[in-house]
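Question: Send over one sample?
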Amino acid sequence: MNKIRPIAFYLPQFYPTLENNAWWEPGFTEWTNVVQARPLFKGHYQPRIPQELSFYDLRVPETRERQAELAQEAGIEGFCYWHYWFGNGKRLLDRVFREVVESGKPDFPFCLCWANHSWFQKTWKPNAPDKLLIEQTYPGIEDYKAHFIEMLPAFKDKRYIRTNEGKLLFGIFDPQKFEDFNNFKKVWNQLASEHHLRGFEFFAYTQGRNQLNVSVLQNYDTIVYEAMNDAYKNYHFHRFSFEWFVYHIKRMLKKPLRMINYSQYVEKSIERFEELVDVIPCIDPMFDHSPRSKGVHQILHNNDPKLWGKLCCKTRKLVESNPNNPDNFIFIKAWNEWGEGNYMEPDTRFGKAYIEEAGKAFK
């Protein structure tokens, strides 16, 4: 039997950039929102403070080395770095991954997922428009070629995560927005062949049935499915319904609008992964978007390391028994998305408990 291959999404936004300095404030990083978070209700776990790694700067190589060591303790095979390419050669938050490739350190496997979405300065208010900061574009075949060449050193790296057939694992965050995916896929597989690579295993990152259907129609090689949205009630309700009034009362009182217990999320995820046998499961250790959205977006309340361990164990068993996932991949979202309360790294409340529970399941 092939071993389980857990891969954790990795956010590089923990160092200042010129763009973020201009859009937000000098020195802005993901930590800026994290330290400003406050509890929105009794028992709300905020702010979340890192423990062992402290408020790190990802330009420091020793931090990246320690992250890899902790991930290995959790039984994680490698990191899937969020990759930002906006078209016409424009990249953002690329320094960390460049240094990982160029230095050869840490000696820890990696792959990429293209975060193909525009960036906005969001107001999180229904009647206040968001401000576009940078637009995601798809200029066409020449840009696809330039994109491939830019990333070729990573693709040739022995650490790049491959399928059992030797294909390079590469993800698309928003398959619905990438209408020209089939041409992109054709160009990149052709270039891979020209550079003596075995081609790509393109996965679509999906968060609900609509994205799942689009991803199948667009001919992705595989689908990574996160079930968190399935755990929430349908918030598309009729005007002046009971739910409509409750929603607006919560908004006026500045109460969280979309909150469920983590235990509900765990049960719903297991149910969905038992049903969807043609996807790669993506599981969340915790989630709390309130540092960014002030409670407008989703919150998984009462997250617990033991429940996380239960989810890891059950997902492992489902993957091991599923012939439709021959590589035994499991995705974890995420390793270090602190601004969304979505991380495995040690914090002051749980220490290394999330790493230890994952290690029990995956090692």
Q: What stands out?
A: The first helix runs from residue 18 to 23. The two ends are 14 Å apart (CA to CA). The first strand starts at residue 5 and ends at 10.
